[in-house]
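hey team, just a heads up i'm posting the complex here instead of the shared drive bc the drive is being weird again. everything in one block, sequence lines first with there labels, then the predicted structure for the whole assembly after. its two chains so it's a bit long, scroll down
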Amino acid sequence: MKEDLMDIICCPLDKHDLDLEVEERDDEEILSGQLVCTECGEVFPIEDGIPNLLPPDMRDEAPA
Amino acid sequence: MDDRSRVGVRRTYERIGDHFSKTREFAWPEVESFVDDADGAGTALDVGCGNGRHAELLADVADRVLGLDASRTLLCEAQDRIGPRVSLLQGDATRLPLRADSVDLAIYVATLHHLPTAADRRASLDELARVLRPDGRALVSAWSTAHDRFDAPADAETGFDTTVDWTLPGGETVPRFYHIYAPAEFERDVAASGLTRRSMELSSGNCYAVVEPERKVPY
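-- predicted structure starts here --
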């Protein structure tokens, strides 16, 4: 993802701002890292350049 | 497998996404004409973007395009197909990870009918209304009882839930959840949401609505 996405994305749960924590970057592209909600603290991973903003109950580790 | 949940539907597409994507090469003409009618947009959004075949059209008219899907398999297909022209996001249509009043032009086609409950479907329409700018516009579509393959009368008040098998190349079938909308019900759900319709039509067995957000009252 590109960093300018930060001006439009928000926490899917409470719609508050997210903090960006970059782990790996390739020029303008953020390849891995995480997005952390400034209000509820939920952590959303960035994997292979695509942020995973699924709420926790929609993720793989969630019970079916 | 519990396919009657949003996570179940996502898992279905994680499983069939590679093959599904190969059968979804071309844009739908109804979407092409909606996008053609939009003369330029700042930010465009495709909810349920799949392999990106429609987000690709949006990239021709908008400065910035966002493609959102619940399935990572499909998003990877989209990444291969349209690369950096579209910003891809993994997310849930009923809880969009986007700020209010941030989108000028949106398409939400062939996705609403995968949401398992009426509450989910209405929530997703309200979310679309929330993220659209006051002068924004969107195209919403869902599979309908008017399609030839269904016996249900097209004038029914309410549609029905069903599963439609997807056949993988090896012959294995994977059931996919659908809520098949009665046109009257589609109209009701849109009217009950934060969206107002500008026009509605039936085409190729799908209900289509061009919508805009209800007038947002400033506080």
